[in-house]
Amino acid sequence: MSIDETIKEQIEGNDVLLYMKGTPDFPQCGFSAQTAQILKQFGIEFAYVNILEDQDLRERLKEVANWPTYPQLYIDGELVGGCDIVMEMYQSGELKEMLEKAVGKA
Question: Is 30 exposed, middle or buried (0-12, 13-18, 19+ CB in 10 A)?
Answer without folding.
Answer: exposed
